[in-house]
Amino acid sequence: MSGLPSFRAVMLMVAAVLVVTAAAAGVVIALDQDLVGTTRGTAQEPPRRPRPQQTAQTPAPRLDQIVPTAEPVKDFGEGGPSVTVTPPRVLAVAAGTVPKQTRFRLGELAHVQKVIVVDAGAVKVSGTPLNLLAVNPAEFRSWTPQPVADQPAVWSALARGELVADAAAVKKFGMILGAYYQVDGGPRLRVAASASLGLLGVDGIISADLGRSLGFAQGVAVLLHGKEGKISQAGVRKLLGKGSQVVLLDAAARTAKQQQQQQSRPAEQQVTVGRPRSYLELYKASATRCPGLSWTVLAAIGQVESGHGRNNGPSSAGALGPMQFMPATWEHYGVDGDGDGKKDIWSPYDAVPAAADYLCANKAGQGGERLRKAIWFYNHSWDYVNKVLAIADAYAKTYA
User: Fold this and answer.
1) Does residue 394 carry a pLDDT above 60?
2) Across-strand partners of 21?
3) pLDDT at position 53, please?
4) Crossing angle for the helix pair 368-378 and 348-361, nearest 10 degrees?
5) What is the distance between the alpha carbons of residues 317 and 248, in angstroms, rounded to a whole number?
6) What is the pLDDT of residue 153?
7) Across all residues in the chain, what is the average pLDDT?
8) Where are the alpha helices (DSSP H) in 90-129?
9) Residue 49 DSSP symbol
10) Crossing angle (nearest 10°) for helices 382-398 and 295-306
11) pLDDT at position 333, please?
12) Closest among 245, 229, 263, 238 to 361, alpha carbons compared
């Protein structure tokens, strides 16, 4: 068997290929003579049953008179209700086969509702590498977008040992649907369909049987479904161990949610507190940025952290300014409290209102245990929480 030409050369070989496109689905199927038949002949269209002619003298049969039929399914997956898809939120590739116990632990992670582990590997066609997943069509179907899951020809192609290429890979490598490509050192592989799989870094899918014949690594690729934007990337990486790669397939949704949270922060509603004449006035003005938060809590934190600006750091941990913000936290919560056009971590007019925003983001305005937990987030110590609340109570009595 001789090798096939490169992608570019194959594009010049015009074959008689009929292409059926499901426009709304983003799925393209290449049809040729052996789509539903075998290599021995052309697929024949099944004979159509003549419809019984109904006349005014022949009433339609009643429901209890209609006998159900059980004709064989003509194509893989055709004939049943639509598949309920469970889109993957996270794709991970481990350094080795994922043990069963690790799979159970992945399923126990917060917000994870479903886990599947499949084979993965890479092949080269004319020196061009393709990253592929090798899957069981029946099990993997619900992990694809709804238009792909509902397209029977995609799953028939996998069952026949053919390649379903990602639409981006087809465009990138100039593949021709219906063409056969010679895998370097392996068999010829027919590109039967293209579909938008939504799997970042994956160029296509093949059947698990074909993957084993190609020597793919077994049980190394993990897909996780759950609440969008909630599955912990660090938690998945920790369970899969050193050398694992974790890709957030819902990264866009996570970014959008973070932007929405930033836009809804109190700082966007009350921009400035001006430049009050004393720390007492500054604490009172800043507390109005978080409805329900007492100014005495801000004052108590200011006393514990810097003695109201008398010791602004940096601390041994790297905290800075009168409210002792870590630079990374300031990057997210820093505000221009006095309206001078700068977010200055050293300025009390910026730092105190920023502290109010940070506490408010952790639900301090709700009081009670939520307040205690918000103060704990400020400094991870329950002794610190008790100290701050004791000082706040003393301020309340002093300035009542």
Assistant:
1) yes
2) 28
3) 52
4) 130
5) 31
6) 86
7) 80
8) 100-107
9) P
10) 120
11) 92
12) 263
